[in-house]
Amino acid sequence: MDPDTPAPAPTAAVLLIGNELLSGRTQDANLQYIGTRLAERGIRLKQARVVADDRDVIVAAVNELRAAHDLLFTTGGIGPTHDDITTDSVAAAIGVEVRPNALARERLEAYASRRGYPLNEDTLRMARIPVGAALIDNPVSAAPGFWLANVLVMAGVPSIVRGMLDGVYDALPVGTPVGSVSVVVFDLGESAIAAPLRALQARFPGIDIGSYPGRVDGRLRVELVARSDDLERLALVERELQALVDALPAQRR
Amino acid sequence: MDPDTPAPAPTAAVLLIGNELLSGRTQDANLQYIGTRLAERGIRLKQARVVADDRDVIVAAVNELRAAHDLLFTTGGIGPTHDDITTDSVAAAIGVEVRPNALARERLEAYASRRGYPLNEDTLRMARIPVGAALIDNPVSAAPGFWLANVLVMAGVPSIVRGMLDGVYDALPVGTPVGSVSVVVFDLGESAIAAPLRALQARFPGIDIGSYPGRVDGRLRVELVARSDDLERLALVERELQALVDALPAQRR
Q: What superfamily does domain B179-246 belong to in CATH?
């Protein structure tokens, strides 16, 4: 391969599993962290899905998403209760058996013994791991996730997801990192910014430029964000964005 | 139809559109509200997806999700800037043109005039609406969403999404509402609860029983939630859940 041709960046999808995310009971707190870390790693997160605890639905989503992306990250459904069906569903999707795993059991036993918890049959359900999977460490509560084929299966509790993702981070494939620059405009709506911003985007078609409106303490606030893996051009765009903002009608300070 | 056979509940999907939701820049704050209100209305939210501002991706997702569900709700991408491509993408998916809409324009003009804002070509981009769509009122900043075929297109800013959804709520189809009951257990892990909970689920197969672990102020906390549209059986399950908790090893108060 031409050494000047960068390898295409790895792609990824996220599958958030749990009835509670669709019923309104629970606010997802995992996608943003996963998105942030994947961007740092240079992995392109293309899509996320939220599905219920339904085996057929999970199997179909796993197969569709893992076929279309280099990596698939799942969250949720690997605990000890009857509604935790992710392990079996992912194994079924990939076509392998789930079996008691000695290393996972050892970790659960050590954790329970340190804390004086009883260890029962249901605890040991969390030591059932698909054949051929590597364990993903759980630095919070011991019960591991796993990495099988191109699917990384993590817990649902946000602190555990962070620990698991941080633990596998160095083993993930690396892409050119996407840099991000931004400027903020107060007291003007997006309509007042749209024309020069469109012109800037036209001059830099390879840079992803976005405009994000909101309100802070009753004041209009628009954040203009540019993202690219071409950091040299991104630095150029940052100066252009600043010039664009400086040329807008005077803003209240 | 047998009058005792309830009509099947309407189903829905949500499509959250925006690069910023995948890059980690922005925490979605719309899915939980939409899920909560749809559950109240008796509409079954089956799936949510998060996709980038990419026309082909949006078109494909809209067509797939609207074919598989009674309703599809989208958020994001209907502002005045170049990265707001949802209106055109949804229109392309459904196969209709986008044209200037007199009523939408009137609202934008009235809003701008009340506030003394200038109205420019980019503001008026937000008055471009697919042919045949009904407007969805925006009580916050006037620029409307729209309802076209079975797709409801809303803004991305959470306060606007709430206003838009509340505004169309009474026009949505109605299903049997899903009730929810819950009990909370402190200082025990899920493993200690899994066996009696599994037995309870086996006795009430039609009731969706979930177990949601977490930590509050360093204490283990597990919430057991049962959901069903059969409110009589749900009341039974609520008593059973309470009995289950009462039979657990003593908890610290």
A: Ribosomal protein S10 (3.30.70.600)
